[in-house]
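re: the backbone from monday

yeah here it is again, tokenized this time
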């Protein structure tokens, strides 16, 4: 006996859930989502930890978008908590404003300054490179060697275990550098978190599908394939895995998270550092570019706005990818892109399968981009371009 569906969707992350929601509610299709983890949401999953603190289990997820369409789509399932995602950098025994802006410049020269003076300083220090081809070039061509070495080089080496020279310009190029006092980490117009958390938003997407949607957790899709009949598959897992690594495994970077929680009493003596009661550090995210093994400490309570006496901080250690580890980041480098291209050509020849999301397209996409990709794919496979 086999189960019949219109669509088999592999993965219950942003990509799979968006596709499922549209196919079920807009087109009345019967969908099955198969997810190998024991929860929905993919890497955007959040939950309350044992100390009652809402945490992002797979690293902090700062939602932002410039697309009114994507904001409108997700707003059907959540209200929003607006956030200015604040970041600092910690090196040489002190906090620095980050991303680099006029405040950082003043910290470096040890006195008040102006945008004009900072621009002149940058002009004198930056290296002339007309068309920066890698992450080292893109930063030294904007700020010069000193700031590159203080804030970027060590962080990038730890994060990717590759020299910035061997990484695409986009890796470091996405971090803004400003000569005014705008210290927002991100550039997008809309920056907010789902008010009741990502998981609650995903649950509402699933609820909207009613009995059109079936969800199987803790299941590798390969284990159920022999029992299924379906017209089309939407695959959001790793593309190399789909093809049994036939050209070799694509390179990924993994992460290790170390959580530590504190009670209000334990936090009292941190107030001189955090600047307010109930918090461990002065910003949502503090980068550690140089001296420590971890790359950042995140205290997401700063961003979620949760009213809670306890707090949890998460130290993030970059890690090699291997058996039993999550593939968090595709490597943005030319050799990896060349190998992916071979898998992509194979995927293009596959009929009845859509490859979407960050793993199936082997590319670091933000959440809003993945939602956009899923919406576009549903339009394509249903022949309903808008
Ligand atoms: C540390 C980190 C921080 C991030 N921070 C941000 C941020 O601040 N802002 C932002 O916009 N984006 C951020 N992102 C990116 C964001 O996580 C992705 O854009 C988004 O989660 C991608 O959704 P997805 O559905 O493509 O993939 P995923 O969320 O990875 O979902 C894919 C799902 O497929 C499942 N799966 C895989 N193989 C199988 C199989 N064989 N059978 C069954 N199920 C399978 C996986 O278990 C997973 O749940 C971050 C990513 C990471 C790693």
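seq for it, each position gets an aa:
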């Amino acid at each position: 006996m086999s189960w019949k569906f219109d669509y088999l969707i592999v993965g219950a992350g942003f990509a799979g859930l968006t596709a499922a929601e549209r196919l079920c509610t807009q087109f009345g299709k019967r969908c099955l989502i198969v997810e190998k983890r024991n929860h929905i949401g993919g890497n955007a999953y959040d939950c309350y930890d044992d100390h009652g603190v809402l945490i992002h289990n797979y690293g902090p997820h700062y939602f932002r978008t410039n697309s009114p369409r994507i904001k409108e789509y997700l707003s059907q399932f959540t209200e929003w908590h607006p956030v200015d995602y604040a970041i600092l950098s910690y090196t040489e025994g002190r906090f620095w404003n980050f991303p680099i802006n006029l405040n950082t410049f003043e910290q470096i020269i040890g006195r008040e300054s102006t945008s004009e003076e900072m621009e002149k300083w940058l002009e004198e220090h930056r290296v002339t490179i007309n068309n920066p081809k890698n992450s080292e070039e893109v930063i030294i061509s904007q700020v010069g060697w000193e700031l590159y070495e203080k804030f970027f080089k060590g962080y990038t080496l730890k994060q990717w275990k590759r020299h910035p020279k061997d990484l695409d310009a986009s890796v470091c190029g996405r971090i803004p550098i400003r000569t005014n006092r705008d210290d927002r980490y991100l550039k997008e117009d809309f920056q907010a978190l789902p008010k009741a958390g990502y998981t609650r938003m995903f649950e509402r997407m699933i609820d909207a599908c009613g009995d059109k949607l079936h969800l199987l957790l803790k299941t590798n899709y390969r284990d159920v394939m022999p029992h299924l009949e379906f017209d089309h598959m939407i695959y959001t897992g790793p593309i190399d895995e789909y093809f049994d690594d036939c050209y070799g495994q694509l390179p990924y970077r993994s992460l290790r998270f170390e959580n530590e929680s504190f009670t209000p009493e334990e936090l009292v003596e941190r107030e001189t550092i955090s600047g307010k009661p109930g918090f461990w550090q002065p910003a949502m995210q503090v980068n550690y570019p140089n001296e420590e093994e971890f790359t950042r400490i995140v205290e997401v309570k700063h961003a979620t706005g949760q009213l809670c006496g306890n707090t949890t901080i998460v130290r993030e250690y970059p890690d090699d990818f291997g058996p039993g580890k999550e593939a968090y980041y595709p490597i943005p480098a030319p050799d990896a892109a060349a190998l992916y291209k071979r898998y992509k050509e194979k995927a293009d020849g596959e009929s009845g399968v859509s490859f979407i999301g960050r793993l199936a397209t082997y590319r670091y996409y933000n959440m809003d981009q993945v939602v956009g990709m899923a919406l576009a794919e549903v339009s394509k496979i249903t022949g309903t371009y808008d």
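Residues 100-173 form one domain. The pocket of flavin-adenine dinucleotide is lined by residues 10-16, 34-37, 42-44, 58-63, 220-221, 236-237, 255, 328-329, 357-359, 365-367, 370 (CB under 6 Å).
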